[in-house]
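User: Please run a holo structure prediction.
Assistant: Happy to. Please share the sequence and the ligand.
User: Here you go; the ligand is zinc ion.
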Amino acid sequence: MQIIHYPHPTLRHKSKPVQRVDAELRKMVSQMFELMYEANGVGLAANQVDLPLRLFVVNTAAKPGEGEELVFINPVLSKPKGNEESEEGCLSLPGIYGNVRRPKQIHVNAYSMRGEEISADLTGLLARVVQHETDHLDGVLFIDRMTESAQRTLEGPLEEFQMEFQQRQQEGSIAAERAILERLSGLEKQYC
Ligand code: ZN
């Protein structure tokens, strides 16, 4: 398992709800936490590790043994309140940062790994991370939510990501588009 970078097609895949949690999925979720910590991240969505599943992991402390490890399965957001601009980054776009305007407070309904219902009003960093990660599950990246003028300043760096992706696909270290989509549909049959 590894973190995939823009413009990998799985990052644009709209994830389907997870219907079953098995030992293999539990192992994948713990690997997601490991990868997130290695990259000093506070959240990681399943799309970002090439999985078409509607779940993400969060630890706002960004360190194992600190803070709280949260897994959100099939999250649904509601009751947005307020508005706040803050700088975001993304483990699938390393080195890219920019301001994104989002609701300040949000309600989340989801399931934990044990199948328990989560229902909470979130504010602060956790609210922002949960919104950023839920976007991933819909195939939306934080750069999509930046202003047009901010997006224009990123054209060069994003082109570099595209060139690297193409090169890796030509070398064969990233599968061809068709093989990627076939793999995703196999995983969907298994879990969704
Ligand atoms: Zn991200």
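The mean pLDDT is 96.
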